[in-house]
Amino acid sequence: MSHIHLIGGEKGGVGKSLVSRILAQYFIDKGLPFAAFDSDKSHGSLIRFYGQFSQPVDTGELESLDRIVESAAEDTNRRVLVDLAAQTQEGLAKWIDDSGVFDVTQELGIGLSYWHVMDAGRDSVDLLTSLLDRFAGRLPLVIVLNELRGDKFELLTTSGQRERALSAGAKIVSLRKLPDVTMQKMDALSTSFWAAVHHPDRASTGLGVLERQRVKVWLARAYEEIDRIGV
């Protein structure tokens, strides 16, 4: 069955594009057919790192958003990955409601999930609250605790929104910490995760032997989290 994965979080800098890249690499490594859409108009990571699979999408244009569902309908075994830029959730929500997206995807047998990527701050909790207020029980939710943006998520627990999300059927995954300097080196040379793990040339990837090994371990742990919830 085809499945649409919406990667959001609304707030800038929480790691939405990073999660999208991990999922894209996961699909490639697992041999799962997929298509990708990138809504970042200025520096889209999916188009930058996975251009052969990706195309731009304008969340302000209904016909552009329609292509997401159409792509999933074209191939019943395809995953469709959508990297949502900051402050695009309102346009996406309006499209979902006004276009009857839940009814259409159910009729066509297309799965649909929203990945809410969080840092450890209050804003991410408040945005989760708004998301649950609008879609709890209707839109399957995956909460991503991004430890690259903070490793203490007590605010989520004490707010009551973690339990509320779980009660609504949400799944929770953790993205472990990776040294900032390693990620910065990869970004500076546009090093893909595949190259970081497999390419031995330091001049090409910017990474030493043990740095490449740390990326390999980190990526394997991320894959374990994805395997646990299923995609």
Structurally, the number of domains stands at: 2
Instruction: Please give the count of helices.
Output: 12
Question: In sequence order, what are the helices and strands, one letter per element?
Answer: EHEHEHEHHEHEHHEHHHH
Low-confidence spans: pLDDT under 50, at least 5 residues? none
Task: Look at the structure and give the mean pLDDT.
Answer: 93
CATH superfamily of the largest domain: P-loop containing nucleotide triphosphate hydrolases
List the helices and strands and how they pair.
Layout: E1 3-8, H1 16-29, E2 34-38, H2 45-49, E3 54-56, H3 62-74, E4 79-83, H4 89-98, H5 101-108, E5 111-118, H6 122-135, E6 141-146, H7 154-158, H8 161-167, E7 171-175, H9 180-188, H10 193-198, H11 202-205, H12 209-229
Parallel strand pairs: 1-4, 1-5, 2-3, 2-4, 5-6, 6-7
Description:
This protein has about 230 residues and is α/β, with parallel strands linked by helices. It has two domains: about 5-175, P-loop containing nucleotide triphosphate hydrolases (Rossmann fold, 3-Layer(aba) Sandwich); about 180-230, no CATH class. The protein is built from twelve helices and seven strands. It has a seven-stranded parallel beta sheet with strand order 3-2-4-1-5-6-7, with helices on both faces. Helix 2 links the parallel strand 2 (about 35-40) and strand 3. It starts with a strand and ends with a helix. The model has no long low-confidence stretch (mean pLDDT about 95).
